[in-house]
Structures are given as structure tokens and as C-alpha cells.
Specification:
Layout lengths: L10 H9 L9 E4 L2 E4 L5 H16 L7 E3 L15 E4 L18 E8 L3 H5 L1 H9 L3 E6 L4 E9 L2 E9 L3 E3 L5 E3 L7
Parallel strand pairs: 5-6
Antiparallel strand pairs: 1-2, 3-4, 4-5, 6-7, 7-8, 9-10
Length: about 190
């Protein structure tokens, strides 16, 4: 009997596939643990929460050059997720990362806004971000108006996962506090 296996891809192979035009530029795809995933389109609530998060981070002192939205992060050799929002250290070369996507070592915080991908964001993505050593990972559950805060990545697992409701305030890497409720209107 034949054994089935899944063909996994490296980031280098993934980029060759994209360059060859095999996958369209308008497709919402990500490379995660070697698999090319087709992500659902953003609905209005998801998009509104992303905008509110960006506005809040700007108001809390993060310059536009450190806020990145809907762009890839280079993780390991087999993952290139496209988080909704992430905070990054300034590019040491001063080129705004034009020579390559930010790597995990430069990322301070990743936030995934979750309307239809909660299970993926809390499992596979959390594992990938923890393995890469991303220090703070947020999953913002838009349906339940809450935020899962993952910290202390060790051996591919976040040692601390705290669930915050809309009344909570979460700490940012710069010491400022973000009120979870300001991300939601309902």
C-alpha cells in the first residue's frame, strides 16, 4: 500500500513559486511550517480592529517606521507568515527592510486579528512564532472581544498565555499600556 505524504516547502522554494507566477499576486497566502495556506479575506470587523490597533500603537509612541501591517516576517527556513500587525526594531541598515523581510530577531510583538482563523492563530501560528522566539504574540479574538497574550517563548512553546477581556490593559514593549476595549466598538 502506498504511503501518502505532504510536500512541504522552504521559504526559498516558496519565493520561486511566487516569482514564477504560479500563485497570483492577489492571492492571500502564507507559508507556515512548510505549507502554503490560503487565508480567508478580511471582513469589515477584522479590518476595523486592525486599523484601531495601528492607531492605538501610533498614539502610544510607536513611530510609523516600526509598525508593519500585512507584510511578511521571515521565520526559520519554512515559514513566512503575514501578520495583521507587528512591531519591529528599526532596520539597522536604515533601509526600511528593502533588502529582505524582517526576521524574527528584529520583531518585538506580533498581533493576529482573528475573525475566522482563531484555531490556526492559537495553535500553528503560536507554535511558529514561539519557535522563532517572538517575545510577545497577541491573538485578538474579534467575535468575543478579547485578547490572548502569549509571552516567554521557550522550546517552541509560549510559557505564559493570558486571556484578557475588554476591560484589561496589556503592556507593550515600550512600557505603555493598551486598553483592550479600545480595539472594539461593540
Amino acid at each position: 500500500m502506498a504511503t501518502l505524504s505532504t510536500r512541504l516547502f522552504t521559504r526559498q522554494e516558496y519565493h520561486r513559486i511566487l516569482a514564477a507566477g504560479i500563485l497570483g499576486p492577489d492571492e492571500n497566502i502564507e507559508l507556515l511550517e512548510g505549507q502554503i495556506l490560503s487565508m480567508p479575506p478580511q471582513g469589515p470587523l477584522h479590518a476595523a480592529v486592525v486599523r484601531r490597533l495601528l492607531q492605538a500603537l501610533l498614539a502610544l509612541g510607536y513611530p510609523l517606521g516600526q509598525l508593519i501591517s500585512e507584510q511578511p516576517i521571515a521565520l526559520e527556513d519554512n515559514s513566512e507568515p503575514v501578520p495583521d500587525v507587528f512591531l519591529v526594531e528599526p532596520d539597522p541598515a536604515g533601509l526600511d527592510y528593502e533588502d529582505g523581510h524582517p526576521t524574527a530577531e528584529r520583531v518585538l510583538l506580533v498581533a493576529e486579528v482573528s475573525a475566522s482563523t482563531l484555531n490556526l492563530d492559537l495553535s500553528t501560528k503560536a507554535r511558529a512564532y514561539a519557535r522563532a522566539g517572538i517575545p510577545v504574540y497577541w491573538v485578538i479574538d474579534v467575535e468575543a472581544a478579547r485578547l490572548f497574550e502569549h509571552t516567554q517563548p521557550t522550546a517552541g512553546v509560549y510559557q505564559s498565555v493570558v486571556l484578557h477581556d475588554r476591560a484589561a490593559t496589556v503592556s507593550l514593549p515600550n512600557g505603555a499600556g493598551l486598553e483592550v476595549g479600545q480595539l472594539f466598538r461593540r
